[in-house]
Predict the structure.
Amino acid sequence: MIYPIVAYGHPVLRKVAEDITPDYPGLQELIDNMWKTMYASNGVGLAAPQINRSIRLFVVDSLQILENLEEDEKKEYPDDKGVKQVFINARIINAAGDEWSYNEGCLSIPRIREDVYRPEEVTIRYVDENFQPHEQTFNGVTARVIFHEYDHIDGKLFIDYLKPIKRRMIKSKLDDITKGKINVDYKMTFNK
């Protein structure tokens, strides 16, 4: 099943999501459908709040970004091998390295892309889809995607990192998204 993506303006995107247990109803089916939804929407990550579930779950496939980079661009991320991974009940342990800019977008905020500064590296503690615990450090584009999806489970959006003047410049576009005045090639849910 492909879920509709929750659009900017919906309150679920501003909630701090709840941890889940291994007996969360239909968890494996939910994860499978999140992958399907993410790929159908041409995303590289998807968090449960984006499908109207306020739980600490997100999926990331940074492999597809790295595979599509030009050879000279790949040199910018020599240690980033990419991942296709499920993150449940994640907690960031550490963020390190210099902050660097990358033009981010979000399935919940379509047609808006802005440069966002984030640290080079993230260390995160989480459980996988089998509830096996992990603590890993990621860098480069993979860290970037993890930071972005992690923000979703903490009720934050990439636009929160923009300077006030930039936020004012995109306000009418954000208002249009909130009102459902946008066309995208994937299903969306609006808070009208």
Summary: The first strand starts at residue 5 and ends at 6. The mean pLDDT is 94. The radius of gyration is 16 Å.
